[in-house]
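Ticket #405: bound-state structure for nicotinamide-adenine-dinucleotide.
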Amino acid sequence: MKEQLITLIEQPEELRSSLTTLLPMLRAISGGYPAVFISEKNNTLPSLVNMVFESGDISPDAVKNAYAKADLDDAAHASALLICGDSTALISLSPICYCDAVKCGKAILAAADGDKSLLDTYTVPNVCNAPKRLKGKVAIVTGAAQGFGAGIADSMAAEGAHIVIADLNAEGAKAAAESLCEKYGPHAAVSVTANVSDEDSVKAMVDAAVLAFGGLDILVNNAGIVRAGSLAEMQKKDFELVAAVNYTAYFLCTKYSVIPMKAARAVCPDLTADIIEINSKSGLAGSNKNFAYAGSKFGGIGLTQSFALELAEYGIKVNAVCPGNFLDGPLWSDPEKGLFVQYLNAGKVPGAKTIDDVRKFYESKVPLGRGCRTEDVVRAIFYIVEQQYETGQAIPVTGGQEMLK
Ligand SMILES: NC(=O)c1ccc[n+]([C@@H]2O[C@H](COP(=O)([O-])OP(=O)(O)OC[C@H]3O[C@@H](n4cnc5c(N)ncnc54)[C@H](O)[C@@H]3O)[C@@H](O)[C@H]2O)c1
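RESOLUTION: The complex was predicted; output attached.
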């Protein structure tokens, strides 16, 4: 039985598809204190345990009934309750970190064998009780290893959100998540290696988010790439790559993210969730010799409006943020392959002799006189999450460079 338990804890693959809807329901019903109940005592929480791991009935009504019948005195306030033989451990934190359930399970098994030294190690205190704008919300931020995504993830974690840093760059994602945990506490972030243009990878990303934090409230669809070039220069493979990462991936990330969002809403009709696309000013107006990018971003606004119509009945708001040029970010400022260097070398800015000349040229196009910064984008994201009466919008954050018609 012990071996079965640890197998269950460590290898949830078989259960993943049901956990991706079940955990969000439990988290929603319990008001943010989700629970994984793993028990080998049949007299403890039997209906819930059976329902989770045996009955296979995870319809909203079945989950609500099982939760109502379960004896949840302590467990209602615990994220993880693991019972093995005579040893019991409660981890009290919000929201659940599945990794902690695994560590906790191992500690209990060790205790059952007489080694109690690990038990205390896994009692994790609540990180912060101060009021925060995104407290307890779970967010995936794609492409968050660097650039806008990293800054967005940091600002959201600072406001109490639990972040899944999802990026193709595994090392960068891991480092970014570790940095957030150092700054904001052990459950601020986890990293997932993901290719947002690959369907299996996106599905695994959403499953990992739910297993880490019990549900999903916000998707920030940020990962994006640029391949500029004229009609004569542009290769089909580059055009298709831009479309795959900027356009198709938005469809895939939304398709899988709404699964846990809808599950939570099915048991808690007041809940709302957010899909937020980081679009671009190039999604609002054409971009000379940059049509692959602009086309993918225009398409993103079509998806935003259409998803908004489809998902409104589930309380899922869908909006886009359209930033202007992030002149301080790596895309522009990288000293070797950044756009400033590229444009200087290509003579794209007439008369420019230095990188500074190129920068000034782009700043002069902005009525408010500077490039877009992460904090400008973050303000729009907070507005979108807090505003309960708007969906399907594309919000310009361009310093006045693009204005809505
Ligand atoms: N930089 C700008 O001036 C600017 C302006 C407006 C909008 N945007 C948009 O903001 C978003 C972020 O841009 P940025 O400048 O921060 O970019 P960036 O190049 O600095 O970072 C992009 C991140 O996405 C990751 N990524 C790329 N392809 C991926 C894939 N297939 N799967 C998962 N991750 C992938 C990269 O590894 C990287 O960490 C993009 O959607 C971009 O179009 C950028």
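RESOLUTION NOTES: Residues 2-122 form one domain.
TICKET STATUS: resolved
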